[in-house]
């Protein structure tokens, strides 16, 4: 499904040049649950952003189901994100001024030619994460765990094939973190490919593969049989 | 997508009422002031534009160039001039308009109306629409036309053609048959066409000698030229025409047109003929534009500042697949919605305030959506452009952010140093305008107060004036009125003269000389006064005495006689006396007449404070033949009560003549009113601009404070004191206000001094308004920012740190 070849990402500012990623080669198959691990500042978010096409590699090729994303136009990438990707962040990033339902609807807003009723899709996504009873609330009225579940609903409402999660449980207590993990796992079981950045070894243990990164380099990629 | 833009707009508005309210309020008030002042400018510049073919109609005005006086343009001309023009230009199309006072009986009431006497060609110039009747034969002897309102007033209905109306004017009391009913005249006019009838030989015979007397000016003469070339050609021949017809007035071989020349004045330009009025209207239009400008700046500032806080939302939308185009559309759409809402609110404010403005200013402003469609379209266009401007900045900047970086950083990006600089510059402009407006408002109001309290040489409170010049009044009835007035309780004095406060007409006394003086002659103005005149007005004697019967001051009729006069200070100076004492007892020569000065008084300023004081002399008549104006001095009685008592006394003495009582203050008010109106409109504009400015500052400060919450929290953790934090935040906002002061002060000073020059007697400019205006701006800025800074500095640092 995904093939990264010789991906590097350099940040150039006035004096310093930071190498966030160096010559990363990675293939991911449909249906995998990949956990990315590594110390802070090693390039995990950079890798995830490149996978999510909101950052471009400095060099290297990115193939997504046969399409070359590294050279695709901005508009093409936007459409790609709308149709195939879902994002989940550590800090939820819900829009403060919209209700939970409206936030989730945003996940469909930029998608063209949708089959089926938007309303039904939103309801279904809310049910899937168990947030329907909070549809009319604003984000600040919800607990962190509820906010993150709403954010997941927004990410999956358009039925993406790839779900990208950057430390989705980083701001949550273990109970809520556990719930989020369960949701991600059940989504994965339903066929969605999940790539998740995490610091937690126990969460990584639940993934089908663990990718370890150190100083911008991929040092280890372990395929596991889920317990 | 549109639905989502609407939804987001609605949510942002409802969830941030302060921001949305400030933004909406500021812009809608700016729009309201702009629209109101535009309507005012339109009103003032549209006088007579409703007259069909107004551009082809000209008034023949006189430019007087008299020795010792500044040149003066009048709109009136000699009664017989048009007849003389027809002798030389047989094809000339023209009409005179002579205004008479007419008395009409309405039930038991006697009402005074204005009546216009015109020539048969009237409709060839003023092609006024009719409500009833026909123009054919409308202007024949014994017939009269009146407006719809007059028809309703006197007959209770509009179609009154064929009815009879009894009217008494200079020609006596006569019956007229209504020949046609004119549609009502719009408010934007100086022409009064309530009652219109033919100017007959009988009516101008009343002016006997003056009808064909060069040097006199008693009515308006209008002529029509279809092309500019024809008008120019006619104008070119006017000096020769004056010299030919007025030859007998020429002296010492100097052509007559050097002292009296004729000029074509476009009908449409008559209203704003004097440059000061025109300048005032332009100024107000500019104030309207500036208010809008300040509000627009404010709006752009607040919108962009607010939008900057939505960077995170933008980044999230990008991850959800929004293109830059989608986001640009969203921000433009939100800004346009906001401006449209402000437009509607602004127009509503205008609609609500127009009745008040019209009532207090005696104006006829109206928002006419059908006839002012062009203006409104322009306004809407302007507002939409503003919306685009306010939306484009965030649309461009925000959609350009790299979502990965926005999401990675804990703070929202600010739009960079450039954005901050632009916003600071806008705050400077805004505050400069506000400070300048404050100074100018102060200056205008002070000058108007000054004019109202200025020493006019007489005591204007406790003084009533009534014209006793109705043709129906005889010498005896004037005397009986004065006698009746003197008996009214509370009245101390009553006197008669032919010149009174607020009286625009005056008599030029021709040229006066000191015997033996070979230099240029001086042109003085004179007034005839009756017994007690000086005492009634409370005039102040400098040397000598007032005029009275006891000294035998009665002025003889004979041309070569000797008479006694009192002069004002200004006349004393114009003749060339250095001190009042030097003037006292001297004899002046006016033709064959000898005028002996028996007193010098402080000048009586009966005219506009903008005009120069007239050089006046006063002579005595026990009884005045024409133009009698009675003045009444009273004390210890409230004005309405005195008005009632005097009206009763008048009715008893002369029941058939309407009483036209006015207080001296009312009569003088015409001079202050236009300036006061304009000053009020200006103040309104200035206040709103200031308000909008403060709103803008508050919004900016609130925005900055909230942006710097994290910085403040960190500094606190590091041990900064509350005072340090507040001065840090306040300091960063005082700089633009200080710069604004530097810009505003010289500009305001220049404009104010230029405006003040037009007044004969004007106030000086002191440092006070600059200090107060600048100080207030700094205070307001410091207070609003300080308040927010206080909150920021007081909040627990943990909260700010956690929420990021
Ligand atoms: N916009 C940027 N400019 C410069 N350096 C950056 C930028 N974003 C990330 N970096 C650097 O790239 C490296 C990897 O960052 P990141 O992918 O965020 O790490 P992680 O998510 O693993 O903690 C870090 O050294 C970081 O400082
Ligand atoms: Mg990271």
Walk me through the structure.
The complex is a heterodimer of chains A (about 230) and B (about 800). Chain A has about 230 residues and is an alpha/beta fold. Chain A has a single domain, classed as P-loop containing nucleotide triphosphate hydrolases (Rossmann fold). Chain A contains seven helices and ten strands. Chain A has a six-stranded mixed sheet, sandwiched between helices. In chain A, a hairpin with a 2-residue loop joins strand 4 and strand 5. Chain A is globular, with a radius of gyration of 17 Å. The C terminus of chain B is likely disordered. In chain B, helix 2 runs antiparallel to helix 10, helix 10 runs antiparallel to helix 15 and helix 23 packs antiparallel against helix 24. The longest helix of chain B is centred in the last third of the chain and has 44 residues. In chain B, the strands form three sheets. In chain B, strands 14, 15, 16, 17, 18, 19 and 20 form a seven-stranded mixed sheet that branches. A six-stranded mixed beta barrel of chain B has the order 3-4-9-6-8-7. A four-stranded antiparallel sheet of chain B has the order 13-21-12-22. Chain B has about 800 residues and is an alpha+beta fold. Chain B is elongated, with a radius of gyration of 34 Å. Chain B has three domains: about 180 residues, no CATH class; about 220 residues, no CATH class; about 210 residues, no CATH class. Chain B is built from 25 helices and 22 strands. The chains are: A alpha/beta (about 230), B alpha+beta (about 800). At the A-B interface, helix 1, helix 2 and helix 3 of A face helix 1, helix 11, helix 12 and helix 14 of B. The site of adenosine-5'-diphosphate has 11 residues of chain A, from strand 2 and helix 1.
